């Protein structure tokens, strides 16, 4: 059997706020949604392909100390695309880890931006060439560990 990731489903506290955030940062468009009270959700995608489903089914903030999702990672073509996302993320006032774009680990060519959505869900946007000559924030540990 061969597997390929289908789509991602996230619980959010405010569907409208999250739709706006993911639309601005990732350029996702709404492919379909329900506004029915108690059953609100939105299908978000690119070029007509479903990428992310947001479910308004939670309260509070993302609990990093509990088992479950660690972070979501999205690959883009190059450093310019990571920098463009960084500009939007900072304009939105999202929490950015490691002070911006950093390598995945010391000496790595790949790197990216590590940040949180409005509910505290940890996200990464990276590119194979995004590290440049910047030092890794966690030494030999993987930067995507959010250490």
TrEMBL record:
One of its GO terms (molecular function) is lactoylglutathione lyase activity. Pfam families: Glyoxalase. The keyword Metal-binding applies. InterPro entries: Fosfomycin_Res_Enzymes, Glyas_Bleomycin-R_OHBP_Dase, Glyas_Fos-R_dOase_dom, Glyoxalase_1_CS, VOC_core. Gene3D superfamilies: 2,3-Dihydroxybiphenyl 1,2-Dioxygenase, domain 1 (3.10.180.10). Keywords: Dioxygenase, Metal-binding, Oxidoreductase. Residues 4-128 form the VOC domain. This is Glyoxalase/Bleomycin resistance protein/Dioxygenase superfamily protein. It comes from Nonomuraea pusilla.
